[in-house]
């Protein structure tokens, strides 16, 4: 070890690039412990200066650099698990990051990369939401302002999909238990909860729903602590199930 630099806030992932145009390699790091990312500039001798800290979403799991707006300097994007988003930070040309812009995920911002996905000469953004098993494709419109990027595709099931509830584990002190699911077409659905012995302990939903994404919010869960399964039945014949852990304070 030739040197140590404090990245602050439980550094989780790093990226490298010349953010300030001085031909030195700089390092940026995502911070899982605090809603921040850190910038450590190269000093020209192979060493790094003390960290500069910027605010971003909470529990950043990934970070990447790329010239998103086409102005010749490296911009930055983070994926943020707890705030369920991706955030683009524009480089002002001196290596300072300004004008953060939020790109919404679904249940979590888990990982993100900057790349020219459609080979049109500008850089796009691809992000992963591991909780809902979704891939978010943000297209750069090529007008020098990729923070206007829009999601052009999510991985949507061919028929229907039951997504992971959140929070999981769920504690009595949490505000809501949210169970999301996606329908490609209108259908009658039944959402049930079972204990580990296979006994049905609750019917949460039993009605026809339109096509699209739905979120069932339970404000009170009057069940003992333990492991449960929730099951979505579509048209009385096809079913999907997932596990949830219930904690008591």
Gist of the model:
Helices cover 0% and strands 51% of the residues. With 249 residues, the chain is an all-beta fold.
| Tally of separate domains | 2
* Biggest sheet record: 5 strands, mixed
Low-confidence stretches: 152-157
CATH architecture title of the largest domain: 7 Propeller
Looking at this structure, what is the CATH superfamily of the largest domain?
YVTN repeat-like/Quinoprotein amine dehydrogenase
Give the averaged pLDDT, no decimals. Answer: 84
Strand arrangement, largest sheet?
A: 14-20-19-16-17
Along the chain, the helix and strand elements come as: EEEEEEEEEEEEEEEEEEEE
Number of strands: 20
Task: For the record, give the distance between the C-alpha atoms at the N and C termini, rounded to a whole number.
Answer: 44 Å
Quick tags:
single chain; 249 residues; mainly beta; Methylamine Dehydrogenase, Chain H; Immunoglobulin-like; 2 domains; 5-stranded mixed sheet; 4-stranded antiparallel sheet; 20 strands; 0% helix
Structure write-up:
With 249 residues, the chain is an all-beta fold. The chain folds into two domains: 11-151, 7 Propeller (Methylamine Dehydrogenase, Chain H), CATH 2.130.10.10; 160-247, Immunoglobulin-like. The chain has strands at residues 11-17, 26-31, 36-40, 52-55, 60-66, 75-80, 85-91, 97-104, 111-115, 124-129, 134-139, 150-153, 160-162, 170-171, 177-183, 187-195, 200-209, 212-218, 226-234, 238-247. The strands form five sheets. Strands 14-20-19-16-17 form a five-stranded mixed beta sheet, with no helix packed on it. A four-stranded antiparallel beta sheet has the order 1-2-3-4, with no helix packed on it. It is elongated. The N and C termini lie far apart (44 Å). Residues 152-157 have low confidence and may be disordered.
């Amino acid at each position: 070890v030739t040197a140590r630099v404090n990245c602050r806030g439980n550094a989780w992932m790093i990226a490298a690039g010349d953010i300030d145009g001085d031909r030195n390699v700089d390092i940026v790091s995502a911070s899982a412990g605090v809603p921040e990312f850190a910038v450590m500039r190269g000093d020209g001798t192979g060493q790094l200066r003390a960290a500069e800290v910027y605010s971003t979403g909470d529990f950043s799991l990934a970070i990447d650099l790329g010239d998103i707006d086409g102005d010749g300097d490296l911009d930055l994007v983070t994926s943020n698990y707890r705030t369920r988003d991706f955030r683009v930070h524009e480089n002002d040309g001196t290596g300072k990051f300004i004008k953060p812009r939020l790109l919404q995920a679904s249940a979590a911002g888990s990982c993100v990369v900057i790349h020219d996905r459609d080979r049109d000469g500008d850089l796009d953004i691809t992000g992963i939401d591991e909780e809902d098993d979704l891939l978010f494709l943000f297209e750069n419109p090529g007008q020098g302002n990729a923070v206007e990027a829009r999601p052009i595709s999510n991985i949507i099931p061919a028929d229907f999909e039951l997504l992971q509830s959140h929070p999981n584990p769920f504690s009595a002190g949490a505000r809501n238990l949210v169970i999301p699911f996606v329908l490609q077409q209108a259908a009658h659905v039944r959402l049930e909860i079972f204990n580990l012995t296979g006994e049905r302990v609750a019917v949460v939903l039993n009605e026809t729903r339109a096509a699209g994404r739905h979120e069932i919010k339970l404000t009170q869960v009057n069940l003992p602590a333990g492991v449960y399964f929730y099951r979505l039945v579509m048209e009385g014949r096809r079913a999907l199930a997932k596990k949830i852990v219930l904690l008591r304070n």
